[in-house]
Amino acid sequence: MPQWLCNQLMKAYQKKDRRQIKLLNDCWFFYRSKPSVRSFHSKTTP
């Protein structure tokens, strides 16, 4: 997990900001679900 995201989550949990926690959680799952550029290139190169 990127450090900036971890810091944002820590702040959101401390403030008990459910909307921010949900938004950051969605960002993390979107980030994790995207295929990385490196794996994409390794699959397309012969």
TrEMBL record:
InterPro entries attached to this UniProt entry: CmpA (IPR047764)
Family annotation (Pfam families): spore_CmpA (PF26301)
Superkingdom: Bacteria
Protein name, per record: Cortex morphogenetic protein CmpA
Lineage, top ranks: Bacteria, Bacillati, Bacillota, Bacilli, Bacillales
